[in-house]
Design brief:
The protein is an alpha/beta fold. It is built from 6 helices and 10 strands. Helix 1 links the parallel strand 1 and strand 2. It is globular. The structure holds glycinamide ribonucleotide.
Length: 210
């Protein structure tokens, strides 16, 4: 049984999708804890109701990045994580923290990386005039929103789309591809080769949808 710890900052809809898939698909894993960096993270309530341990490491208590990451690592290690899942966790993590969990930390980002790392991805995609946009699940490396890509979802940009419409179509895709990537990890099926990630036996590492 692998221990998954999920980190959230807000709504936690990706966390919910992973919690549900873990249980419905009987993964060889358990959600050991959900940890938030702010006490008002809405997703904490769902996790608690699902009987999952929750914790808060309040970023306001730690003005220094290093001190926050040290406190977070202490909480995390309490749950002996085999995999750390960043699910809308809106913190830039220090290199030391990322290296401590190298190869066992995943993130979902709302763009087709390497396009549009950082914030406000949907508006930036609209402003750039791209006709395909999407989401990426990747291993976390010290460089922000840059790491070996596990799976991507692409959606067309429709006439009349604004950032909110695009975000909601892409979020629905995230709820498909993120549980898929986490399942592959806990099944021991992922191998990182440079910037590429191999799945064995193969399954589609992409999703196309309108
Ligand atoms: C998701 O769209 C996720 O891709 C994004 O935040 C949202 C969280 O939603 N993550 C980032 O922007 C990370 N840089 P959720 O809390 O409902 O899962």
């Amino acid at each position: 049984m692998k221990n998954i710890v999920i980190l959230i900052s807000g709504r936690g809809s990706n966390m919910e999708a992973i919690v549900r898939a873990c249980s419905h698909e009987a993964w060889p894993a358990r959600i050991a804890a959900v940890i938030a960096n702010r006490p008002d993270a809405a997703g904490l309530a769902f996790a608690a109701q699902a009987g999952i341990a929750t914790a808060v490491v309040d970023y306001l208590d730690f003005p220094e990045r290093d001190a926050f990451d040290a406190a977070l690592a202490e909480q995390l290690d309490h749950f002996a994580p085999d995999l750390i899942v960043l699910a809308g966790f809106m913190r830039v993590l220090t290199t030391g923290f990322v290296e401590r969990y190298a190869g066992r930390m995943l993130n979902v980002h709302p763009s087709l990386l390497p396009s549009f790392p950082g914030l406000k991805t949907h508006q930036r995609a609209l402003d750039a005039g791209v006709t395909l946009h999407g989401a990426t699940v990747h291993f976390v490396t010290p460089q922000l929103d840059h790491g070996p890509i596990v799976v991507q979802a692409a959606v067309p940009v429709m006439q009349g789309d604004d950032a909110a419409r695009l975000a909601s179509r892409i979020l629905a895709c995230e709820h498909i591809i993120y549980p898929r990537a986490v399942r592959w990890f806990v099944e021991g099926r992922l191998a990182i080769e440079g910037m590429r990630v191999m799945v064995t036996p193969p399954e589609p590492q992409w999703l196309f949808t309108e």
